[in-house]
Amino acid sequence: DVELTNMQLKPEALNSLKLPVRVKAGFLGSVKLKVPWSRLGQEPVLVYLDRIFILAEPATQVEGCSEDAVQEAKRSRVREMEIKLLERQQQLKSELNSSWLGSFISTVIGNIKLSIGNIHIRYEDVESNPGHPFAAGLVLSKLSAVTVDDLGKETFATGGDLDRVKK
Known about the structure:
The protein has 167 residues and is an alpha+beta fold. The protein has one domain. It is built from two helices and five strands; from the N terminus they run E-E-E-H-H-E-E. It has helices at residues 67-96, 100-110; strands at 2-8, 21-34, 46-58, 113-125, 134-145. A five-stranded mixed β-sheet has the order 1-2-3-4-5, with no helix packed on it. Strand 4 and strand 5 (134-145) form a beta hairpin. The radius of gyration is 20 Å and the shape is globular. Residues 1-155 form the Chorein N-terminal domain. It comes from Setaria italica. It holds the Pfam family VPS13_N. This is Chorein N-terminal domain-containing protein.
C-alpha cells in the first residue's frame, strides 16, 4: 500500500482542461493506493482520495469578450477535447488489445475502484460585479467510480469485456 498525506495542489494543475475557472488554492488530505500485487489482474486496484479542498476564481484570460463569444469558445474547447479523447481512446484500445501485456494493463486500468471523500469546492468571484463579491460552495461527502455491467451492478471485467462495461 502507498499513502501520501497533506499535499498542496498546484494552482496550474487544472489549466490543461481550459476551464473558465482558475484554481487559487487547493489541498489534498490523503491519497491511498492499494494494489493487490499477488492477484493483480484478478482484483481491482483501489484508489482513495480524502479531504479535497479547492478554492476557485474566474479565469480572466477571456476579459473583454461578449458572453456569447465566451460560451462559443467554451463549446469549441469541449468539442475539441471530446474529439481528442475519443481518438486517443481508439488508438490506445487497438494498441493495448494487440498483446497479452496490453490486455493485462487494460484489465487493471479498466477495473480501478476510485473513492473520493470529503470534497469541498469554493468558488469566489470579486471581478464580475465589483462591490458585490459572490461566493458559492459545493460539498460532497463521497464520490466513487467503479466498473459496472449492463445492469449497473458492480463487476470485474477482463480482456474484451471492458468494451461493454461502464464507469
